[in-house]
Design goal:
Strand content: 25-35%
Largest sheet: 4 strands, antiparallel
Number of domains: 1
């Protein structure tokens, strides 16, 4: 794992995707929405890991909500979320490692990367990097449908690009669900 992290770190040092700014213009047209429940009804693990996942999702969503996806500029999950550490407010949540679910700091962020991937597919964005889970995990059926996206700091990333128009990324955690949206400006009126 350290070799993969070092290799990705070196590649990103040379040609990292840029940090995206916040959208300031109005983006009233929702073109994609991915919603997933916070609590997995078939999760039989420790409740504190389920609660930890929600804390981690809130922390990561705060880093992503409102980003402007400029046309032709790559979005990178890890470039914007950053390393999930205790010092940055992340806690233990459930994570799939080595084919089994186990507690890890930052666990649960794959729910966010999967929702981002789903929204990117709905919006017909160009996927630059995406990795599937090594097995189907409890929760939404995205993995069964081949529409999941796992992430692992920093070498397993989710990257995509809007090929032709600016978009605003929305990422929030409600009382019941994780909601990721992509919004566009309205098309100009026809003359």
């Amino acid at each position: 794992m350290a070799v993969f992290q070092a290799r990705r770190g070196l590649v990103d040092l040379i040609a990292a995707p840029p940090r995206l700014g916040r959208a300031v213009a109005a983006f009233p047209e929702i073109i994609a929405e991915a919603r997933s429940p916070l609590v997995s009804p078939d999760y039989s693990g420790r409740p504190e890991h389920q609660a930890g996942k929600i804390v981690n999702l809130r922390r990561a969503c705060a880093a992503l909500d409102g980003l402007l996806l400029a046309p032709g500029v790559a979005f990178s999950f890890w470039r914007h979320v950053g390393r999930p550490t205790r010092a940055r407010g992340y806690v233990e949540g459930r994570m799939l490692q080595g084919g089994s679910l186990s507690p890890a700091v930052g666990g649960g962020l794959c729910q966010l990367s999967t929702a981002l991937y789903e929204a990117a597919l709905q919006a017909d964005l160009t996927i630059l990097e995406r990795h599937a889970h090594s097995r189907i995990v409890p929760g939404p059926n995205a993995a069964r449908a081949g529409r999941d996206a796992t992430v692992a700091w920093n070498y397993v990333d989710l990257r995509f690009v809007s090929p032709d128009r600016p978009l605003r990324l929305g990422a929030i955690v409600t009382d019941e669900a994780l909601v990721v949206t992509l919004a566009a400006t309205l098309p100009p009126p026809s003359r």
